Amino acid sequence: MNGKQNRSHKKAQEKVRRQKLLRLLESDEPVWLEVNHPELANGSTAWVRTLRTESERRRAFTGRRPEHPSKLKAQEICRDTNERGRN
User: Fold this and answer.
1) What is the Cα–Cα distance from 58 to 64, expressed in whole angstroms?
2) Is the pLDDT assigned to residue 23 strictly greater than 80?
3) What is the pTM of this model?
4) Which of 22, 46, 61, 82 could form a disulfide with 42 if both were Cys (CB 3.0 to 4.6 A apart)?
């Protein structure tokens, strides 16, 4: 695609995204259903507290902060690439 076609394609995608969002906002159907989020049955405060407690336990066990998911993904990609190179 050249630059003009690419811009046209992006504009079309944005228009479709806006239309979907407008339909969603105009709909009477609920977007958030409690049945899809059982982890919040005791409230969001309890859920966040549980997450923090689990994180603190892991940190205490390892003695350091857990790696950011993006770093873990990058390490996984490098490892996979190296393993393929050995085969």
Assistant:
1) 8
2) yes
3) 0.41
4) 46
